[in-house]
Amino acid sequence: MGFSSFIPDVVHEKKAINRRRIEIEKFFMNDLYSD
Fold this sequence. Notes:
Blueprint: H1 3-33
């Protein structure tokens, strides 16, 4: 278990967080403009 095996997990976690944030932003945009 070295540093090289730790970095991909961090990168994957950041990608997952960004994807979730984009989905949330899309949801709020749809909510705002659905009036």
